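Dig into what follows:
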Amino acid sequence: MNWPRTIVLTGLALAIVIAGATIVSSQQDSDSADGQSEAAEIDPSSAPTETQVTETQATESPTPTSEPPTPEKERTNTFVGRVDGGAGTLAVVDHGGEATAYFCDGASLEAWLSGSATAGRLRMSGDNGGLRGGFNGQQATGSVRVEGSRFDFSLRQVSPPKGLYRVADTIDGAEVTGGWIVLPSGRQIGVLTVDGQSQPAPQLDPATGRVTIDGQTLTAEPA
């Protein structure tokens, strides 16, 4: 047996095995490092969560600064005219759903009525009468009943100072109530009651509502 040659071959084989193991180990270390690097690049803990995104968006969202819209003021529609046959004068006022009506003959007969004005319909009642009818943007029509008498009507819409005025006060301890209807022509029809006694109403100033009664000045308000 050739011992020197065998020893050389054995040494060579051992060197090849060691070199191969070193290469494998280096490759594994490289793969491990690459894997850790990739893991670091896609680490879920470093990415923003859905909650964080939502919170960020909520923080960045502008805060509304506009105030709630203010409801529109209720409109007042007033209709006036003489009832059919000319037996009296009538005024109807729509206060955005609530309604007031006043009938008078300009001497002593009068009636104050109240009720509703909705969906184009008028429904009112009072101590000595009632009213049924309809209305639109230009006129009001129907019938009114006062002290057992019934009158049909067709009234025109008017604007101030035309319309309906009312006063309730006291003079020297006497109760004073009155109603005035100012027609489109400017003519005034009304009844004034002082301490239970009814009479034709004196002229008032529609621009100010002032009226002189028994030497004293009172102010009638739009009804």
